[in-house]
Amino acid sequence: MTKLLLSPIQFGAHTLKNRVVMAPLTRMRADEALAPTDLHATYYSQRVSAGLIITEATQISNQGQGYPHTPGIYSQTQVDGWRKVVDAVHAAGGLIFLQLWHVGRISHSSYHPNNGLPVSASAIAPQGETLSASWQREPFETPRSLSEDEIKGVIADYKQGAINAKAAGFDGVELHSANGYLMQQFLQAVTNHRTDEYGGSVENRARILFEALDEIVSVWGAENVGMRISPFGTTNDSFDPNPFPQYSYVFNKLNAYHLAYLHVIRYRPLDTPDQTRIEQEKELWASYEGNIIAADGFTAETAEQTLEEGMAEAVAFGRFFLANPDLPKRIELNAPLNDYDRSTFYGGGEKGYTDYPFLNGEAK
């Protein structure tokens, strides 16, 4: 039974027709101007059965890019491209938010050769490798620490991104603060060694997050804004041995905003579960008074259980939505799911993007 999962709910200013959310999925298919194309419009409009579509992460500036051919929201060409996507989604009866993104140190100088190294809270290199602008594997570079003036510039970029998203016709925006990207680099003590007003205490490390959020809310109103966070995540070398005090502060401070939702990537241990983290996660989620979208590896059955237990109000699906454009219908009918083709996740054209079949056997 998936009674709750398929029932409507109010998220801020918006009524979701169900609680099956399309998660933000980086697909690296933007054109040379880093603008969405007609193919994007088809891809997103195929998936309007979602209660809410959250777009792929979209950089707010050239400096914010960290992967090949990810779309931006800082040029008129990009705004025009997103307008085509939004119009197609709205024409098909869908609801769509844009995810605003700055990758920080998870970048490479090849994306912004005129401006040099990637930036972050502090000059601490992540472990591992990244993809350069020419799709080559390269070791992560040591970023340079943003100055206070530059931080104000990044915050202004978030505001302009929010303004541009409104010009493109979106229904709202989501502030990406998860998965080891810039906002999380400031939040976590392991990546933030600053001694100014943006480092040190939990309040200072969260300052850029809330200053950016304030600017976004000033454009959209809190009822049209969401935020994504991953308190216990390890993606992009973001592991923090003691994240609870920081995120307890963030969760509680967010209560005063009355956002449309908080989008939380759950704790999933790679091997032996850490019982302390399990209990801390329960405490964090319970402390938030608004709508929570739970994310990361759910099935229809585990999603329904999460809703029944009152842990969240909706659940985001990524790979399943990627491969099943009519996912809510398949959940309703308990129909088989298409298998996803991992080799087509990033880059390319129609294959593995707009050609997954609907239940009637055709891609629309």
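Second entry:
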Amino acid sequence: MVSGLPTGTRRGQVRRLPLWVVAVGPGLMVMLADTDAGSLITAGQSGARWGYRLLLIELLLIPVLYLVMELTVRIGLTTGKGHAQLIREHFGRGWALLSVGALLVSVAGALVTEFAGIAGVGRLYGVPAGLTVPAATVFLLAVVCTGGHRRVELIGIGLGLFELAFIAAALFAHPSPHELAHGLTASQPIGNSGYLALLAANVGAVVMPWMIFYQQGSVVDKQLTVRHLRAARIDTALGAVLTQLVMIAVLVATAVAAGGHRASLQTVGQLDAALTGALGTTAGRLILTLGLTGAALLASIVVSLAAAWAVAEVAGSRRSLDEKPSQARFFYCLYAVTVVLGATLVLTAHSLVRLAIQVEIVNALLLPLVLGLLVVLAFRVLPQEHAPGRTRRVALSIATGTLITIALLGVGLAFGL
């Protein structure tokens, strides 16, 4: 079997570091990437159109997100294998190709929204997409192709931390506590197709196929084991809370800007206008620039690596960030092709908001396949001492079942199916 794992020298270095230092990274990286340009736009449209009505679902999605991703981590730590590799070994190449195909659909949509977001930010300053998109492409290729796993993580997390500017935006917008409380308890307009489409989009934005492939591939590539489980859980829990706080912050800031009127966002410029209306021109634009650019660049790294790891796993090729491009040519070529393809496709995008919501709805439709395979795989491969107990199995089944049901019902009702 062709291995994508680091060298013995690196394993020795890893063992000498504290467990929490080694384990921190995959969870924060993938969770901050979860709040990508598409998710941020979806949250912004939710606040602009429906005020605080969708705030409750954002809070309820925190434990669901943690349960799913903690299971992903545990599978990776106990088996030492990536998600696509395990599907191939336990369900056959056909299921592996199907799952990777679903992943690539999600990745393509995500990358278009990331580059569209970057291009939209550039236009705020009069910089055309013909300059911002190629510059972002070169940056993304340089980060991954010239550094090891830890360096990529540090850069990625650093980019993702710019998203915290949105939390400051929500605080500076001074939302009314009374209106927030009312939004949490108000009846939901489940008869409105536009609301249901946004509900499905928000659910689709919380657990995306590439997240599972990336986080499992990352813990394997870092040579983490069950000794790192506790630290990896903390890493995942912290990331789950942070990513949903960012979503909530964007929703709140745009809801304040809308002032109770149903606004509709179609471009990054309109999102900029919403934030500057609540925060002032300088602060609003700075927060949007830092937060959206950081989120889009980080997510581009994560989704492209998820695709590269998954395809390389199915092909049985070398696939480690701690190997040079000359040693893992196929893996690095996959990453480069994915990034370049996303940059090229963005030229066909017209409305970033509409595109982002459509991408999240597609993610919602993929949830049955993605979560179904994950749960069944966990029951098959996890050793008894690390398998979910009865209580956790019930919680996991309820969480994933509810998530899938809400997503599919939301999509179905929104489109009159």
